[in-house]
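Annex B. Sample input.
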Amino acid sequence: MELTREEEAILRGEEGEGYQKAMEILVALGKVQGAQRLIPVRSAQVSGVSPMTIGEAGMEFLRDWASSGVKARIYATLNPAGVDLKSWRSLGYPAPFVRMQDKILKAYTAMGIVPSCTCTPYLVGNLPAPGESVAWAESSSVIYANSVLNARTNRESGVSALASALLGRTPYSGLHLDEDRKPTLAVDVTAPMKDMADYAALGYAIGKEHEGVPLFRGLRPGMEELKILGAALAVGPISMFRLGEKTKLETIEFDKAGMEEAYAGLNTTDEEPELVCVGCPHASPREMRDLAKLKTKRRVWAFTARQNKVRIGGKNLKVVCDTCMVVSPLKDLGVEIVGVNSAKAAYYCAHLSKLRVRFGPLGELLR
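Annex B, continued. Sample output.
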């Protein structure tokens, strides 16, 4: 890789061990990816926040890095934590888990990372302009940035996104390049798309079997549908999609039978859910306003960024901030069966949290 004089000096350790570590990570990553150089990035979104996902070793790694005195050189936001930072007592989170979470957050904030604790940074102020390069780690925000915002980012790891936050740079490779952003597969959607869960099922089905950049035809989604579609695609290796009509690409069809197969694959039980969780990715302001109107006897938790929290009445419906059902220790709260309308939530609740999952449209889950 060709480095500038400033980058070479950082790599030699002339600005301290912490920045040297960050540069070593980016250079090693760039070499693996075949990058010729590093480029500036406007912002970072750093993952690896919940004790569920990084554990004791991850916490100590972060605390050690923070102790070197490094500070973020660009605007950098943080992925969801494992608990609601203000309401954890009333929600029943175990105190040892919360104490560990507090240590992790203190390490990040010491390094100048904004504790936004959301997987939708674009809804709380971290909004890149079209064509702008960023370094984001959360898979659902990465695909939204590339596909909807027309920004440019690879799917970073939590460590590489943190290194980019500290240096304001990332390797010039992958989805930062024009040639890697072209559609590679066309998907004709003929299945009826009536609910957000249908978009989630579509994304899961395509992401499970394909790579590259799919181009969807026959869709008329809104922002919320794009958000949940992208999150489902990103359960697999896909980090960008497009919408369009004309194409000479290889084409596959997603029909009613494909929809039914996707639903079946996302359900691990036909039991009644003990808790219905919505907001994966975090609920938008519009979704929160819609949820505020709900009348249900079912126990529901709505996950969102704290900035988008709204007052909701009813004892069965709670707004939970700073975390999500995927990285929250729901089993420790006594939950065994969860209902979700998000394919990402369905996948990770089953495989990471080992919960039994009922996937479907929100209206059906509430009945």
